[in-house]
Design a protein that fits this description.
heterodimer, A: mainly beta, 7-stranded mixed sheet, 11 strands, globular, B: mainly beta, 6-stranded mixed sheet, 5-stranded antiparallel sheet
């Protein structure tokens, strides 16, 4: 099956801890994206990566970090500096950055208490 | 800031009726896309319309684009209970921007 996987589906953490969300794709896509979605809201772009070892900040990058060491993988770390980390996190990919259909993973719901 | 904004925020219709959702955006685009999201799930791509197209059809979906008004509409004809979901428009200028979504409820 081709697609994007995110794990885990639900994640619980204590305040002050860093947590890393996994995103893997086997679509051979160059570009990958991380979005945050809050209840009743649209998606806001956190980070995106067009190519291995390169990534760009989106609109709400503060308190987050990413890496892109492999084409297939784009993990997101939610650091303790993120003031309101509880949200639904979605990973997506496209063949390139030139637009076109985005393929989404199933999402990870992070709850920080 | 978000590029797209859907209208209405919520829509409730009877099965068999048509559902129309609108999207307005702010800057020039390469193309506009519509996505569907079932509760607690990822988004699924529905249709893409390029900036030089005015109308596109896919099954029961019809999308229009008016670049002069910076707006698009999504029409779902003969709605079904399974169409219940949130619908988002997304624009891609130099990066993707998603709207706030329309929550559609189709009552059996």
């Amino acid at each position: 099956d081709g697609g994007i996987t995110q794990s885990p589906k639900y994640l619980f953490r204590k305040e002050g801890q860093n947590v890393t969300l996994s995103c893997e794709q086997n679509l051979n896509h160059d570009a990958m994206y991380w979005y945050r979605q809050d209840p009743g809201q649209g998606l806001r772009l956190i980070y995106y990566s067009q190519i291995v070892n390169d990534f760009q900040k989106g609109d709400i990058a503060e308190g987050y970090s990413v890496s892109r060491e492999k084409k297939e993988s784009f993990p997101l770390t939610v650091t303790s500096a993120q003031k309101n980390p509880t949200a639904f996190y979605l990973c997506a990919s496209t063949p390139g950055l030139a637009g076109g259909e985005q393929y989404f993973g199933p999402g990870t719901r992070l709850t920080v208490t | 800031s978000q590029q797209g904004e859907e209208d209405p925020q919520a829509l409730s219709i009877q099965e068999g009726e048509n559902a129309t959702m609108n999207c307005s955006y702010k800057t020039s685009i390469n193309n506009l896309q519509w996505y569907r999201q079932n509760s607690g799930r990822g988004l699924v791509h529905l249709i893409l319309i390029r900036s030089n197209e005015r109308e596109k059809h896919s099954g029961r979906l019809r999308v229009t684009l008016d670049t002069s008004k910076k707006s698009s509409s999504l029409l779902i004809t003969a709605s079904r209970a399974a169409d219940t979901a949130s619908y988002f428009c997304a624009t891609d200028g130099n990066q993707f921007y998603f709207g706030t979504g329309t929550s559609l409820t189709v009552i059996p």
